[in-house]
Amino acid sequence: MRRTVAALVAAPLLLVTACGGSDDEPAGNAGGGGGGEGAALEEVSVGVIPIVDVAPIYLGQQQGFFEDCGLDVTLETGQGGAAIVPAVVSGQSQFGFSNMTSLLLAASEGLPLQVVANGVASTGEQGADFGAVVAQPDSGITGAADLAGRTVAVNTLNNIGTTTVRESVRAAGGDPDSVQFVELPFPEMAAALEQGNVDAAWVVEPFVAVATDAGAQVVASNFVDTADDLTVATYFTSRQYAQENPEAVECFSDAMAQSLEYAQENPDAVREILGEYTQIDPAIAEAMTLPAWPAEINRDSVQTLSDLAVEDGLLDEAPDLDALLP
């Protein structure tokens, strides 16, 4: 039963989307947003990842928040920021979703990105967050300090997972430099734990629920340990698109604020819409911890992520947050 649930979660259903225009007529024309009775909607493409975090944008699309201010949104699924960031910079997509550490790294490399809306945040509750470090009960790991000298699986090396896990260890009095990180896709982590291939794993929902269903236990809430109400991910665009299409960007930002508020206030709607763009088993969807979806970006927490990225050697120097954040 546990392996069946894990297999269902491991294969996200790619959303089938309509074309955003012909090759001769790109989706992001420079006409700006600005709906109105009889006005044509501006077509925009948004790069997203088929995970729990982006449920608000699907709900906002369903509720008509984007159409109300003049946007026809097409959601294009990708595997992560490595594909979404270049698509936005090149104009293939007008907006994208990415974790903040990836955006900080991109900004430090001179990529012209601009955050336009909040994406997802930590619940701020120890032991009840949508991201966590899990380990087997017989591993000898009962808290973050015990991760020192152990192997910990993360989905991407040198990114938000490694930075926040290291901060958990540091805050607990352990040696963060002694943690050995191993890169594994989230769907493979529960099996790697069971087989003893890694000592612990950093996972996000629904994989927290999958791992605990398989017998693992939460040993650290790394997002909570890093900053109060950590802003984990945001929506962004390119500076060029923002300068040429200010009305469309304002529409997108306003509609996302509505979408985030709607998701925060309607957890049942969140769990229901997951079935439309993922293959998360309904039992897991019901059991998992949902993230927080505040409309406002927690700037102090982004500064913390930036400082930690410098401390951990991911960045030589912190990027200009005034240029990156709204």
What would your notes on this structure say?
The chain is α/β, with parallel strands linked by helices. The chain folds into 2 domains: 2-122 and 229-324, D-Maltodextrin-Binding Protein, domain 2 (3-Layer(aba) Sandwich), CATH 3.40.190; 131-226, D-Maltodextrin-Binding Protein, domain 2. Helix content is 41%, strand content 18%. The protein has a 5-stranded mixed β-sheet with strand order 2-1-3-10-4, sandwiched between helices. Helix 6 links the parallel strand 6 (151-154) and strand 7 (180-183). Helix 1 (2-10) runs antiparallel to helix 8 (207-213) and helix 2 (55-63) crosses helix 12. The longest helix has 20 residues, at 246-265. The radius of gyration is 20 Å and the shape is globular. The termini are far apart. Residues 1-33 have low confidence and may be disordered.
